[in-house]
Specification:
alpha/beta, 5-stranded parallel beta sheet, 8 helices, 8 strands, about 40% helix, about 15% strand
Amino acid sequence: MKKQFDFSKKQLNVNASLESDAYYNTREVAEMLGLSLGTVQKMVERGVLQAWKTAGGHRRILGSSIEDFLKTHQQQPNTFFDQSKNLSVLLIEDNPSLQKHYEQSVAESNMPINLSFVNDGLSAFVEIAKHSPDILITDLCISGVDGLEMINTIRKDHWFDTMDIIVVTTLNKIDIDSRGPLPKGVTVFYKPMPFNTLYGYVSAKLALLQRVTSPFPLGRHLQMEAQ
């Protein structure tokens, strides 16, 4: 009997997942990984998942390739969100220079933040399901999946209602709306990144979670130049 992952219950568990020598259809894999059908189809087209087509044109995805994908995306070099009292922030960013900017800024701020990075949207899905960060920061143009599709998928899952989503983009509101409006409650910052504003947002989130007045004065840190 095939076992499925439950994205809403954060059960991304390779050992209790599927049969490596079995084949699964696109819908089954989408349910396992908590992704949309379109995203799984893109993963097959890009060779992330191994599959073959039936005479009727339907995809059959090899179970071992699903296991390989999960193992690859679960073996992250940095520790994710270990300190429960800190604010957990997940940033989707594949530019090492920008990752370093964020990391240095958080370190200089002395704020109780656990900042982690993933390079693409597919890795983000795995980490979000495993750890449910307090804040997700992403562009709409990211590797692996469509950023807007990813955000809509997350917002449809009430398990993650308390997770804030911040979009950092070069697109204006008209361009964003033309691709499909963002869900309510998603905050948009326009590039170059307004680190001052981001700092205020994070401070407010910390104050809310800790139920105390934030000790960090607005704009004290994160004053670096955005690239």
